[in-house]
């Protein structure tokens, strides 16, 4: 083997390596020091607020819900939620089907209407509270706004017996 060929290979330039490392470190520090809300936007370069959710959204809701203090059921439902852009909404449950309770509701006069509130964070996440008529519990959910406010993905966090998700799409 020719030793001259092995020794004549170019070596890494230590100045270039230090410069590249410095640039990578600076970029990492910039990303770490930015507030999360400055990075998370609604997809159109805007940060989110309650005003991001305004208008009518259709929902597909499904999961496991409590139907008594000791019993749960699998269910699926559709609903229409109308956000006012100020932190309030009205929801019509058009139809639901539970494994134990069967078909409930219906379109129009048979549908039940409930009210709720919501709070949107600048990073396009939020919480909602759905107030149901007695004896049903209040439903608390966390959500994330998607597609520049055209979509919402939601999970129920309370009551604990409910393991429910909902996908909303703006009409």
Fold and architecture overview:
With 171 residues, this protein is an alpha+beta fold. It has 2 domains: 3-36, no CATH class; 50-170, Quinohemoprotein amine dehydrogenase alpha subunit, domain 2 (Lipocalin, Beta Barrel). The chain has helices spanning 3-7, 14-33, 36-39; strands at 54-68, 71-84, 88-98, 102-105, 112-120, 125-131, 139-146, 151-158, 163-170. Strand 3 (88-98) and strand 4 form a beta hairpin. The termini are far apart. Mean pLDDT is 78; it is low at 1-12 and 14-42.
For the termini, the CA-CA separation is 74 Å
Helix content: 10-25%
Rg is 26 Å
CATH fold annotation of the largest domain:
Lipocalin
Order of helices and strands: HHHEEEEEEEEE
CATH architecture of the largest domain: Beta Barrel
**Major β-sheet annotation:** 8 strands, antiparallel, barrel
What's the CATH superfamily of the largest domain, by name? Answer: Quinohemoprotein amine dehydrogenase alpha subunit, domain 2
Strand content: over 45%
Would you tell me the structural class of the helices and strands? alpha+beta
Count of the domains: 2
Instruction: Please report the number of helical segments.
Output: 3
Strand arrangement in the largest pleated sheet: 1-2-3-5-6-7-8-9
Number of strands: 9
Shape verdict: globular
């Amino acid at each position: 083997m020719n030793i001259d060929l092995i020794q004549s290979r170019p070596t890494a330039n230590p100045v270039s390596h230090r410069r590249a490392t410095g640039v990578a470190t600076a970029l990492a520090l910039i990303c770490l020091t930015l507030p999360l809300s400055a990075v998370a936007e609604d997809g159109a370069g805007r940060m989110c607020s309650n005003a991001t959710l305004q208008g009518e959204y259709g929902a597909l809701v499904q999961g496991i819900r409590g139907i008594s203090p000791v019993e749960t059921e699998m269910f699926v439902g559709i609903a229409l939620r109308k956000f006012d852009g100020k932190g309030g909404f009205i929801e019509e449950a058009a139809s639901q089907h539970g494994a134990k309770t069967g078909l409930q509701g219906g379109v129009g006069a048979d549908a039940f209407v409930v009210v709720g509130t919501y709070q949107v964070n600048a990073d396009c996440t939020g919480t909602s509270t759905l107030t149901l008529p007695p004896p049903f519990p209040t439903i608390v959910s966390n959500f994330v706004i998607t597609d520049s406010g055209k979509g919402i993905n939601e999970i129920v966090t309370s009551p604990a017996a409910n393991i429910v998700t909902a996908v909303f799409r703006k009409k």
